[in-house]
Amino acid sequence: AALKQDANQTTSSPSSVFFADNSRRNIEAIEGQTVVIPCTVRNLDRGKVVSWIRTKDILILTSGPHTFASDFRFEVIHSEKNVEFWGLRIRGVKEDDAGQYECQVNSEPKMSLAYQLTVSGKKEESLKKLEILLDVLALGEAEDSSKWLGFAKVQEPKEAYVQHASAFSISCEIFPMFTRNVNMDVWWLHDDTQILSDTKESRISIKTSFNKENNIIHSILSFDYVTWQDFGLYTCLQPSVRKDSLKLVIVEASFQLATL
């Protein structure tokens, strides 16, 4: 029988294997998204293997660095640069993918950590509840770098004063850890609300590109002109990528920016 590690257990003796940073066990996603279920294993002995199991049909999805699932949407995320992280990535998640997934270690006794994946339809109101969605996309706010698969960097300065009715753009660069099958879906948030690329607000546009020479994703959020309602925090992020933000302050057209 597998040893179920308690959700609050994040430490162990220096010589024993244990799951780290396992507080987020309920993963919520919207149909069509790419989901990364995190699993960080500390003190993994040589010869021990981390595997992912889909509980509902006891299907072995991955074992070590190898993917066994015939469905190409499933793959393990692991690299020599981040040897403790063994994430399970599911591309284009479907409602049928909902259920329990276990990250297992073939230790003695066997250890496992269960995650519950919930998938909502595209038309669900959960798209608007980004305080929940952020937990999925960014995998939390902890400083532990083992959970991040890249980082976003928004232009400096991080507080911009822009005159009312002026044009303005916010630039964001994303540095992904993996350059194969790069995800081009960059999310922009205004406070806790997603800025949709197909918005009817034609004065706002999003353009995203990928530079193959330096493996950097570049996304620009542009305003033809800003209004008082545009005041707030703008955040650039991707699934499993450490996000970055800029605060936009709208001032009177007669305001002397040079005095700041």
TrEMBL record:
Top-level taxonomic group: Eukaryota
Any one Gene Ontology BP term: synapse organization
GO CC annotations, alphabetized: neuron projection membrane
InterPro entries according to UniProt: Ig-like_dom, Ig-like_dom_sf, Ig-like_fold, Ig_sub, Ig_sub2, Immunoglobulin_dom, Zig-8
Listed SUPFAM superfamilies: Immunoglobulin
Signal sequence coordinates: none
Pfam families: ig
PANTHER family: DEFECTIVE PROBOSCIS EXTENSION RESPONSE 4-RELATED, DEFECTIVE PROBOSCIS EXTENSION RESPONSE DPR -RELATED
Name under which the protein is recorded: Uncharacterized protein
Taxon lineage: Eukaryota, Metazoa, Ecdysozoa, Arthropoda, Hexapoda
